[in-house]
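Model it.
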Amino acid sequence: MSPAAPELEWRGVRKVLGGRPVLDGLDLSLVAGRSLVIIGGSGQGKSVTLKLALGLMRPDAGTVLFRGRPLPGLFNRRQSVLYRQSGVLFQGSALFDSLRVWEIVSFRLLHADRWPRVRAREAAIEALAQVQLGREVADLFPSELSGGMQKRVGLARAIVGAPRVLFFDEPTTGLDPITAASINRLIADQVRRLGCTAVTITHDLVSARTIADEIALLDGGRIAWRGDRADLDATDDHRVRSMVEASLPPR
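Modeled.
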């Protein structure tokens, strides 16, 4: 049996920022239904990798592909195919302060898909329930929510359209350990429930262990190591070992 074709692929991608190559021949692919977590130190290109897939940046060389077809960048019709089938949980949640929660969650349904407001509101409430937020939250504003609740709202927005691909940008940054653990479990549950492809970037190995099927280490602009989640603690790769040991609590 031939291997499954990649759902997402970064092929020979190079990106230079400030005169420095952030990505330098990145080769990375992911088949449908798998959850990949990209780890690495600060400044290693994790966010750039995500932005290239989302069309927020264009590679200086190489290609990003979705289902075998190149993604040419923002506001292109082919890129919009990915947009319609994806959801994003942003690092800072990126909620609209002037909108009520249900309007934030259903923003794409209202403004891109042109759903009637009544239908969009019910879809938002169903998505909120999936992230363990009650109907009463729907009419609140972001300023009335805790940080953990805001993150859940961001997750509800990401999953509301039953996306085929999910992107998570440092999903637990700024959260306390208990709230972060809850968000990690919710993300893992929703990825499994939807059966979607997921790409997460994080420096948090607790998140990686909870969310990932596979983990890839980005270092020097390329993938330096890749393995299943269980391989993280078993590998002898010195770069991975350094990250694992740095994440352990002091004795």
